[in-house]
Amino acid sequence: MTPLKDIQASLDTDLALFGAGGDLSLRKLMPALYQLDAQGLLTPQTRIIAIAREPYTTDSFIEKVSEKLKMGSDAPSDEVFERFTARITYLQMDLADAANYTTLNQQLNERPTNRLVAYYALPASLFEIVSQHLKTSGCADANTRIVAEKPIGHDLESSSEVNDALAACFDESQIYRIDHYLGKDTVQNLIALRFANSLFGNIWDERSVSHVEITVAEEVGIEGRWGYFDKAGQLRDMVQNHMLQLLCLVAMDPPADLSAQAIRDEKVRVLKALGEVDISTDVVRGQYGAGTSGGQQVPGYLQEEGANKTSSTETFVAIKARVNNWRWSGVPFYLRTGKRLPEKLSQIVVHLKPAPHYIFDAAQAHLAGNRLVIRIQPDEGIQLQVLLKDQGLEKDRRLREGPLDFSFREEHGAARIPDAYERLLWEVLQGKQSLFVRRDEIEHAWRWCDRLNEAWADADEPPKKYAAGSWGPSAAVALISRDGFSWHDME
Ligand SMILES: NC(=O)C1=CN([C@@H]2O[C@H](COP(=O)(O)OP(=O)(O)OC[C@H]3O[C@@H](n4cnc5c(N)ncnc54)[C@H](OP(=O)(O)O)[C@@H]3O)[C@@H](O)[C@H]2O)C=CC1
Ligand SMILES: O=C1O[C@H](COP(=O)(O)O)[C@@H](O)[C@H](O)[C@H]1O
Description:
Blueprint: H1 4-10, E1 13-18, H2 23-38, E2 47-52, H3 58-71, H4 78-85, E3 88-92, H5 98-109, E4 115-120, H6 127-136, E5 145-148, H7 156-169, E6 175-177, H8 185-196, H9 198-201, E7 209-217, H10 226-251, H11 260-273, E8 283-289, E9 291-293, E10 296-298, E11 316-322, E12 332-338, E13 345-352, E14 371-377, E15 381-389, E16 399-407, H12 408-412, H13 420-430, H14 439-459, E17 464-467, H15 474-481
Parallel strand pairs: 1-2, 1-4, 2-3, 4-5, 5-6, 7-12, 8-17
Antiparallel strand pairs: 7-13, 8-11, 9-10, 11-12, 13-14, 14-15, 15-16
Helix pairs in contact: 2-3, 2-4, 2-13, 6-7, 7-14, 10-11, 10-14, 11-14
Bound molecules: NADPH dihydro-nicotinamide-adenine-dinucleotide phosphate and the ligand O=C1O[C@H](COP(=O)(O)O)[C@@H](O)[C@H](O)[C@H]1O.
């Protein structure tokens, strides 16, 4: 067995955070690193080198981090804050200038035993230049880990270029492509639920499952990100990555073990089995107009700050997808995601087929059958809807729907559920890749989404309007109701 001190020493890290002054770093990564420190998961030798173009000093950067931490729900403790901020140095860098990497290398050489983790919280267009300079300056070696933020490209071609640029400098085993949904606690639990319980193994296929719904609804609009979002749209922003990853975790076969390779191989099989989608019948594209959100009047997408008033970018997509393999033959997977929907809600609902022979009150035959509801956020938990006998003598043979409910928040009481980035950073520090996305996964997902984007471009139809604060265009309700089903939250 490896001695504990050696395991801990292997965690000694120099985290070079490129794009440290950006929204992602200040809002997500710094708080996640702080939390890892608070839990004693950063070794004393671990350092954070914050890199961006802005002329911060280390002190003024720490001041900025402190403001953000104080805005979070878990107030920082003075003791941890002091320990955490002592790890940080700020390095102002023009990423294209080779001389800057010499300075970085000098800093890294102060503690040569530390492993470099380079986190690219940057646009993917900069990955190539940063990777090359890290390599040629000697900052990076075979032990370095690279964390790459999404989006990796805009389509298959551009993502292959980004991946080629990374591969020219680093081995695939060094590259950690982030999909933060894989770091969410309930998403982890989906793997435990499916593969640790024999209960589900025998019902997880076309013989028992009628259909699957995956919803990722956001209450917010585009949050001042017009420049990025309008070039992307909801398909690229949410479906190509998060939604397809969730679909993979629901649909994949049991992996032989929990290794990154076994899990990724099974996910790739699902992506390869994704069927062609007919955009005239199986897809709804929407764009929000003005409406109400959180009790406030909010502008439509075309009235957002910086908007091009004629944009036909979609802010909502619903898709009836198929996984064409033996396990899922004939089972529709309904995907739905949008901005400015009535609430923030991510959930997976697995609907089971009705019992083969119905013997109860005919007037109640409409009651929904068994459903497994996996709530990813908020109110994380798992609920199994079952039909039970109603109580009372006069209600003999009457049924009622009842949940077998498991709420993570109730079970954990006041204990906080770690943020996705906290989990993912901890996995990177340990060198575990199973919660990160392999190159071929990204590329198969793009292949499928590119076909949809091409079909939309050929059809040249504007997206359907929906009012902010509604559940998307009415066509999305029709998409599922044509098959005799309805969205779970609308029942
Ligand atoms: N924000 C989020 O919630 C999410 C972001 N992402 C992705 O993460 C990446 C970063 O996003 P975000 O933080 O929002 O972006 P921001 O625009 O807020 O920040 C970008 C950061 O990159 C730095 N940067 C950009 N160009 C250069 C350059 N040429 N040389 C040096 N530094 C540069 C900026 O430095 P400076 O300001 O000093 O110029 C800034 O620190 C993007 O790819 C985004 O798509 C992914 C998921 C969620
Ligand atoms: O990657 C992205 O995800 C967020 C939604 O993430 P969540 O954890 O808040 O559900 C989305 O708002 C953003 O547009 C997208 O780029």
